[in-house]
Amino acid sequence: MRCVFPGNITNVHYSCSLNQLFATGPTRGIDLSGYTHMRIHVAHNGKTPRRIRVSLRNFAPAYSRETDTNSSKYHAVILRSEEINRMTSIPIHDFTVSDWWIDQYQIPRSQAQLELSNVMNLGLDFFDSLTPGDDELELRHLEFTGEWISKETWYLLILGCWMAGITLYATSRLIQLNRQTKHDTQVINSLHLDKQKLQLETDKFRRLSTVDPLTQAYNRFGIDQIVTTLMNHSELQTTEAADFALMVMDIDHFKQINDNYGHDLGDKILQRIAHIIQENLHAEDFLGRWGGEEFIVIQPNTSKEFAMALADKIRQVIATTYFESGNTVRVTLSVGVGERLIGEDFAATFKRVDEALYRAKAEGRNRCIMV
């Protein structure tokens, strides 16, 4: 562009400008909002250095009218004389909205900010007043540059990556902890099962140690434990009621049964008699096999009179029971019955009741004697 200012012109407002259109339609320009710098090379040839004004016009329906090109927002920046005739990089944020445009169109403060989302054209004009003579103005290079990703976006990406890393690490740790928890749970469950098995085995051996395997009645060791518990409990009692009643039973002529019919039948008779006795006892009573063909019954909180009645009932049931399929074998039972006296130890009680048993034997067997 070449401007000639004749010397005979006295208009001090004589101006000369150059416009580069960006518009692709009446209201459609280009979006420069994503750029950070404008690289421009403006060449000037004249008698004196000039300052050049670079302007960008942005169209927006909020304040622009299609019929008034001046209504597009006017942004401007000044190129100093040393920035002319060379490539110059101008930060986009150096452009400012001109006050004359704000005043002329009464633009509110909210719309008076930098806005380059729909730029219609770029303008070049002399900022200083022209003097008579020839001035040439040429736009040799124009380029808009920007970051592919803005700093803010970079920060967001870094923050996102950091958060993703933290999330990934946390997820990995959760998975690891979950696996460890599952493993620990399996170990705990395994230990629990082992404990249950051990408890079952312990109960099994405890039962084997206290129960007679043939009759399933308590053995001597089991009866001793029961007696110890009852004796300890009796020390806390303040009443004069009997602590327990005691029966000592013996199968009459049991050796002859083994000799005449064999030990297999003898074992069956022991099992059957133990079963009959147990069926007639209360839930809180205890039956034990004292040895061989001798049984013992302990009845807590029971008088000897009640025990005597129960012993005689059991004796009668056994006396009328056949113990062999041919209905040829019957046995009888002799019983001694008594109760623990106050302050008496178990050995003394057992001795008295055992003596009653021998009296029953001596008096003809198949009877109960109470002491």
TrEMBL record:
EC category: transferase
Species this protein is from: Cellvibrio japonicus (strain Ueda107)
Domain GGDEF: 242-371
Record GO terms (molecular function): diguanylate cyclase activity
Cofactor(s) annotated in UniProt: Mg(2+)
Descriptive protein name: diguanylate cyclase
Pfam families: GGDEF
Classification via SUPFAM superfamilies: Nucleotide cyclase (SSF55073)
Catalytic reaction equation(s): 2 GTP = 3',3'-c-di-GMP + 2 diphosphate
